[in-house]
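Chapter review: from sequence to fold.
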Amino acid sequence: MLVTDVGFVLYWVITALHVLPAESLFKDYENDLVAAWNWSFLPLDLLVSGTGLTALALARRGVPAWRPLTIVSLTLTSVSGLQAISYWTIRADVSLSWWLPNLFLLLYPLVPIAALVRGLTAAGTGSPPTAAGGRTR
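The token string follows.
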């Protein structure tokens, strides 16, 4: 998770500084609409990194809030990958250099999310919360 969260921040710094050579950019990158689509991921990706890095810091300190925050971060990571894969699927544009990282983002969070949700369920009473925030019996 740390590598992914730092990777998102680095990607946006590299993108903003135009460090990547043109041949490594995705198809139609210079098209204003495609560039806008790419930049539309900035808030989502930074939210992924912010929640993920915060969750990791909380986990190091033993603060229980790390678990739900990690679930949020991993879910947003998967959403980011899904959005990119969906776009390229609609465009029938297959490039492994862009598909593989986004398939990774889509799929890798699924197993830890399931484990964390099971852990939260096992840690609770198994009863749903009431409207007042307590648990029913």
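Two observations follow directly from the output. The two ends are 36 Å apart (CA to CA). Confidence is low (pLDDT under 50) at residues 125-137.
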